[in-house]
Amino acid sequence: MAIRILSIRGKQDLTEILRELKVDPYGIKIMAPKALSRCLRIGNVSHIAATILKQEMLSAGGDAALPRDVLTGKQKNTDVIIFGTRAQCARLVEKLRVQPFGLAQLSADIKKSLDNFEKSDFIAAWGDHRLRLGAEPRIMGVMNLTPDSLSGDGLGGRSGDTGFIVEYAQRLVRDGADIIDIGGESTRPGAKPVPAREELRRVIPAVRAIAKKVSVPVSIDTYKPQVAAAALDCGACIVNDISGLRRPEMMRTVAAAKAGVVIMHMQNTPRTMQTDPSYGCATAEIIGYLRGRIMKALDAGIKCDRIIIDPGIGFGKTVGHNLELLRNLQEFKVLGVPILVGTSRKGFIGKITGAGMDERLPGTIASCCIAVSRGAHIVRVHDVKEVKQALRVTRAILYD
Known about the structure:
The chain is an alpha/beta fold. The chain is 45% helix and 17% strand. The chain contains 15 helices and 13 strands. It has helices spanning 11-20, 25-35, 47-59, 68-72, 86-96, 103-118, 162-175, 196-213, 225-233, 248-257, 282-299, 319-327, 347-353, 361-373, 384-398; strands spanning 37-46, 63-65, 77-85, 122-126, 129-133, 138-144, 179-183, 218-221, 238-241, 260-264, 307-310, 340-341, 378-381. The radius of gyration is 23 Å and the shape is globular. The two termini are 28 Å apart. 41% of the residues are buried.
């Protein structure tokens, strides 16, 4: 007699195991939610609502953790951690629907968060492009047309050589890039802003030429609405905005063009972002920030299937913050949109390993593989061919 403790990553894994055992399909449907556990942290509820939450979760077969002072009535507001199987959480949602003290709305919020967390596949709509995200990890290939770029790709000094730039983009696609991301302003820590006129001079000829020569979507990496508008007019269909759509004009530009948008988190600006960045809880604060930006984007007319979020590795974060975000990346799934992660050659890899800019490919590959294993749909990298191979192996281990 052999006993195994199974490593189950999610509903799909469990379903395949039960099918292998030849369990009846109806039985699989009933049993799968019973074996998948969930742990939810619910922020800032009243002590009355917290007490009811615990009682109802216990009655559903799960449990809830809250401070002793809440139970005695000394503490009036608290976070609550509830844990149980997916089925128990579903029963809790039903029980809370008829409860007072804001619990009916909380019921809807819990259900939406759980449903979003279960999503794995998306169809992204960017202009005329449609790309499935989730079935396999996608790669955004980086093209920095900045003379002070630290990427080592040699493009900055040849921003006027359209032929060379097009050949470079085509090579990225042959190597496995699913998206080409073109930028004309350095956003490394301490970088000075570039005037819009100069950024336009650097990127628009490249965007126009590349969009005609490659079949994959072209993204413009900018936070300036006028640069985004010009690039979208020339064939780009995604705006990669490191400022997280802080400018209302950028939202209007993206909405009018029916373009895709990457909403990234950044603390402060590229020039000041690494000046003592601090958070109470980086993961919670950044999820909250991105949730708010998504709502603003939706209100501005940007459809949900055009939105991607990026936690902003290296943008106003310490090494510890970056590692926390990668470790907790799966938590960002509650936002219900695809996740992009950019770790390529970044400084935190050098601080961990001591490696210089040109020696960070192994660290880049490791971080990309971890990101995909924790829910990233897209990774933004310079070394497309090498990362593509690593992700194929990662996917084969995780899913095939």
